[in-house]
Amino acid sequence: MKLVILLLAYMLRRRLDNHDRWNGDAAWRRWFGRGVSVEAGREDAIGRGLMAILVPVLLLILIAWLVRGAGLGILLAPLDLVVLVALMGAPGWRRVLNDYADAWARGDTQAAWHHIQERLPASERGAALSPEAMHLALSRALMTSVFNRYFLVVFWYLIGGLPVALLARGLVALADHWPAAPARERYRRAAQWLAWIPARLLSCTFGVAGDFAGWSRDIRRVLPGFGRSTDEVLITAANGSLTGYALDPARFSEVHPEQWPDFGGRSLAAVRDLLNRSMLVWICVIALLVIAGVA
Question: Which UniProt keywords apply (predicted)?
Answer without folding.
Answer: Membrane, Transmembrane, Transmembrane helix
